[in-house]
Q: What sequence folds into this?
């Protein structure tokens, strides 16, 4: 009679499923717009995920405090719903569907390409459309030709170019790579190798390591340093990158470092308790050093609210959320996602008097136009801070951007190399 | 009439399963159901090697991944899904032979760790064989199963959730039917003999190695099947499709549902993901609560849900005559 | 040659950490027949306790280490009682599930309390030394020293003390041991306590060199299992040799072969070894 119990069991299970009882979250009241964030909130990438979400949260709190947005005469406030996906594509897609079905979220954020990609398979589904706010700097995301995509950070290849040119200017010709394994590190290494060799340089060693799981990098470092490079390309999450610098110096390395843009110079300085070891470092600017008036105040506010170090993730998400809000206002709707996406160009420019990162526009494929900020560290102190404009075709257009921008440092023109 | 009496319950369930698309409340719930059907196939196949043959294979996700990548790469190269799927499942089975030959010489925990390593190797290779698998970025833009053309009626496309649901349901029913026939056959008894006492089975003349290998390969075929369908429905995959977390998931579904039964894996594969979705409301405490539940359930219900039901039923029935 | 020696030193340092952790695990697995899959996470907890003591309570390094070791000993006893003992007569796979539950609680609990960021324990002996052309910090050398001492102490304890011999007795035949009056449950708790305490010591020694995160134990736990299996369950020399071999393989493999595939070679070698010797290098009994 086991069969009977089979039935009982299945009845119960099916009943539970069909009533979908658990999907009765509070449905959003009429004037509320829910923004969904599915991110790794637990597990190894939790710190990264939380930084991203915090940026959006801070922006939403501010917008709501100032009265929300006004669309067609009605006032709307935002509500952030966050769900953990642990970088599991199945979970991310479930979360996206949940945001759509339960809350009718018009926009959903995610910061990892491996989970963004399956979400982009469903975001143009009829009756279920949402804007994919993708925080990823791989060009693969814009290559997917999605009409409802907003890609927030600059294409990382811009940084490859800027960093390489700087190191080249210092006289470096031989580079060794001890970069993290993983999708992002793999792409960076490949792009760097291509560009560096095109310039005429040589890659003397390619010894990647898993920054996410290892903490001892002596093996790849020893092997890389044995080839006597002028500069070391390193990087992954900031904390292990700090260890790499420490261990490299410990092995006697006196040359320079190029940090892939995932690693944050200021966070590394915090972990190493000072910049003594960080001589001749090229990386993305420390967020507090971005030569834009609002960067400092954003930094203070963020650290006070979240009791942790401020990062680019938070700053870019913060500004991007404002852009989304303004796009809704410009489009005159909070639910017609195609209209909102079409109205995005009208949300810009978002300038440095109010925002820690200046955003000037958006490409048709969805990439936001914001300058790449590059910083060097010399003699234990922050040095040059340059900002590169990469989305225009000539110096003249850069002049025009300079006129509206509010940076304290001149913008430079960079022509992206194919 | 006896046909209905004997199978009435199963027919009722079948009817309910078929009626799901009309009563499902949202795409979100529908998505979960579709995923659960696929997980159920994976869990049933794990049950074959673990529950019925007694070998704890921890490489299961690796074969799920092989099925997934097989379908992903073949369909992107233009091969029809309906050819790519069986080919990928057979590939998983074939690689299963290659894995089984060295590992099945070991037993118990040694076998578990051996297969664990194998699973991790598959995941690493998937992430680093860039020219074949696209490396850590994975494969994007995998087409959904190509439409089946029925002459005279039209074609069945698989772009909607309803069609996808019937597809996975069909495969689940196929897997259930296959497992049922296998487990209640002489072959199945052979598997259980190996599980219950391998030395004795060997002593009475069974080629235990061949039996274990057979169960292993069949199990890998079916989980490869599940992986292939998963890839096509999700549209993009990365090496995480072969990650050990998926093996652990199957293991939890199997053990909490009821090992060595046919209902157990299905119940586990539906109940646990649903439970986890409920737990999401607890934010950062969800995994802690889940961990506690895991421990409590396995201590008090070592044979899972089905085992708990059976002992409850036996308790209600009272001692049977003859035991006095 | 310098490069090679450097890699060897790194490998030995890494290997000695693996050896201590695997040692604890093989004791518990071989003697108590408990596959403690949460071992790596208990190791992680030891590091966090040390971190809290040193940074929040301004305690000195060695004091923090001792407190952490004792604390983990107690926690080990609790874990054995609540998570594994109820499943004593069940198939191993059930303990596996229980362990998964335990490690979820540990990892997410630690994250809820301390946050997901990587934390640094201040290095008490950061000055570098150079011996035979190999560069190292004092802390690394100290680590090897402490692990060797621990192993010797353990051997002395088991072979020379009465309490230690009860562990051996239970390992050989738990029924027989019970018959001569040994309280098998108490021995279980003791063994588990020693196992986790040693893991805590290893964690405290290695944590200042690197950073600690809630997920640092997961991979280590898995590797410890692999080492135990490689060395043979319940074999102390097996765990030590296996740990050092794995450490060397990783250091040399990471330096000379691609880091991505080094795990493939290591695990592949393991599978082949097991295919040839299905009970591990030093193993005698079947699991």
A:
């Amino acid at each position: 009679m086991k069969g009977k119990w089979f039935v009982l069991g299945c009845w119960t299970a099916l009943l539970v499923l069909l009533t979908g009882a658990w999907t009765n979250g509070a449905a959003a009241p009429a004037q509320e717009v829910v923004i969904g964030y599915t991110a790794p909130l637990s597990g190894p990438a939790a710190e990264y995920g939380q930084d991203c979400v915090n940026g959006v949260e801070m922006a939403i709190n501010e917008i709501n405090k100032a009265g929300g947005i006004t669309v067609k005469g009605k006032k709307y406030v935002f509500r952030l719903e966050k769900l953990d996906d642990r970088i599991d594509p199945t979970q991310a897609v479930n979360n996206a569907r949940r945001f759509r079905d339960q809350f009718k979220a018009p926009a959903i954020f995610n910061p990892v390409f491996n989970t963004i990609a399956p979400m982009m398979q469903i975001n143009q589904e009829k009756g279920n459309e949402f804007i994919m706010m993708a925080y990823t700097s791989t060009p693969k995301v814009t290559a997917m030709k999605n009409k409802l995509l907003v890609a927030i950070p600059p294409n990382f290849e811009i940084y490859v170019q800027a960093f390489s040119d700087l190191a080249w200017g210092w006289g470096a010709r031989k580079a060794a790579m001890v970069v993290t394994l993983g999708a992002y590190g793999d792409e960076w290494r490949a792009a760097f190798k291509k560009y560096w060799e095109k310039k005429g340089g040589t890659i003397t060693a390619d010894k990647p390591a898993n920054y996410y799981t290892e903490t001892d990098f002596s093996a790849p470092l020893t092997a890389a340093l044995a080839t006597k490079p002028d500069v070391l390309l390193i990087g992954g999450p900031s904390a292990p990158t700090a260890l790499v610098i420490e261990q490299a110096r410990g092995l006697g390395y006196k040359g320079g470092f190029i940090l892939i843009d995932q690693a944050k110079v200021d966070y590394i300085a915090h972990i190493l308790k000072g910049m003594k070891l960080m001589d001749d470092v090229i990386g993305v600017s420390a967020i507090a050093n971005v030569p834009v008036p609002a960067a400092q105040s954003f930094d203070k506010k963020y650290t006070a609210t979240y009791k942790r170090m401020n990062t680019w993730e938070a700053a870019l998400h913060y500004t991007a959320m404002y852009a989304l809000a303004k796009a809704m206002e410009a489009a005159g709707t909070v639910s017609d996602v195609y209209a909102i996406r079409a109205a995005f160009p009208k949300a810009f420019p978002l300038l440095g008097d109010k925002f820690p990162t200046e955003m000037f526009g958006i490409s048709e494929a969805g990439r936001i136009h914001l300058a790449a900020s590059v910083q060097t560290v010399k003699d234990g102190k922050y040095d040059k801070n340059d900002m590169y404009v990469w989305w225009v075709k000539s110096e003249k257009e850069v002049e025009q951007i300079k006129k509206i921008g509010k940076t304290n440092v001149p913008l430079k023109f960079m022509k992206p190399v194919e | 009439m006896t046909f209905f009496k004997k199978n009435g319950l199963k027919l009722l369930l079948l009817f309910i399963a078929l009626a799901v698309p009309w009563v499902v409340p949202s795409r979100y719930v529908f998505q979960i159901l579709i995923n659960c059907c696929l997980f159920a196939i994976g869990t049933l196949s794990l049950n074959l090697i673990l529950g019925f043959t007694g070998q704890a294979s921890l490489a299961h996700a690796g074969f799920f991944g092989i099925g997934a990548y097989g379908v992903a790469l073949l369909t992107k190269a233009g091969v029809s899904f309906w050819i790519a799927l069986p080919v990928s499942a057979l590939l998983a089975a074939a690689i299963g032979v290659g894995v089984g030959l060295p590992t099945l010489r070991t037993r118990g925990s040694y076998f578990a760790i051996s297969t664990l390593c194998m699973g991790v190797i598959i995941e690493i290779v998937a992430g680093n064989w860039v020219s074949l698998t696209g490396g850590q970025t994975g494969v994007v833009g995998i087409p959904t199963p190509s439409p089946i053309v029925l002459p005279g009626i039209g074609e069945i496309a698989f772009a909607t959730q309803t069609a996808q649901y019937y597809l996975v349901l069909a495969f689940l029913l196929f897997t259930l039917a296959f497992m049922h026939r296998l487990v209640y056959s002489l072959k199945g008894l052979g598997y259980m003999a190996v599980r219950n006492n391998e030395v004795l089975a060997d002593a009475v003349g069974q080629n235990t190695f061949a039996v274990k290998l057979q169960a292993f390969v069949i199990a890998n075929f079916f989980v490869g099947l599940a992986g292939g369908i998963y890839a096509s429905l999700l549209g993009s995959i990365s090496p995480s499709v072969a990650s050990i977390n998926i093996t652990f998931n199957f293991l939890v579904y199997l053990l909490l549902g009821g090992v060595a039964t046919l209902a157990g894996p299905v119940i586990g594969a539906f109940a646990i993901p649903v439970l986890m979705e409920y737990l999401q409301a607890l934010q950062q405490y969800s995994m802690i609560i889940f961990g506690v539940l895991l421990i409590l359930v396995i201590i008090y219900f070592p044979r899972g849900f089905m085992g708990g039901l059976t002992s409850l039923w036996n308790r209600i029935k009272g001692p049977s005559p003859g035991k006095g | 040659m310098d490069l090679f020696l450097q890699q060897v030193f790194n490998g030995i340092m890494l290997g000695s950490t693996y050896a201590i952790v695997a040692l604890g695990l093989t004791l518990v697995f071989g003697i108590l027949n408990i596959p403690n899959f949460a071992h790596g996470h208990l190791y992680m907890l030891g590091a966090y306790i040390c971190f809290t003591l040193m940074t929040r309570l301004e305690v000195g390094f060695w004091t923090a280490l001792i407190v952490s070791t004792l604390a983990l000993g107690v926690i080990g006893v609790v874990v054995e009682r609540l998570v594994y003992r109820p499943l004593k007569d069940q198939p191993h796979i059930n303990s596996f599930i229980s362990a998964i539950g335990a490690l979820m609680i540990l990892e997410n609990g630690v994250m809820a309390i301390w946050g997901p960021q990587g934390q640094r324990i201040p290095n008490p002996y950061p000055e570098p030394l150079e011996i035979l052309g190999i560069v190292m910090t004092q802390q690394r050398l100290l680590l090897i020293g402490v692990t060797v001492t621990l192993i010797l102490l353990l051997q002395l304890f088991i072979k020379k003390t009465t309490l230690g011999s009860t562990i051996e007795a239970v390992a050989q035949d738990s029924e027989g041991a019970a018959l001569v009056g040994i309280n098998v449950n108490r021995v279980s708790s003791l063994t588990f306590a020693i196992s986790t305490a040693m893991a805590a010591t290893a964690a405290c020694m290695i944590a200042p060199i690197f950073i600690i995160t809630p997920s640092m134990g997961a991979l280590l736990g898995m590797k410890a299992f692999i080492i135990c299996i490689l060395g043979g369950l319940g074999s102390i020399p097996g765990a030590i040799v296996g740990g050092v071999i794995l450490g060397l393989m990783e250091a040399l493999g990471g330096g000379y072969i691609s880091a991505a595939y080094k795990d493939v070679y290591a695990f592949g070698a393991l599978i082949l070894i097991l295919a040839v010797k299905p009970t591990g290098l030093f193993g005698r009994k079947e699991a």
In short: Chain C touches chain B through 46 residues (CB under 8 Å). Chain C has a mean pLDDT of 85.
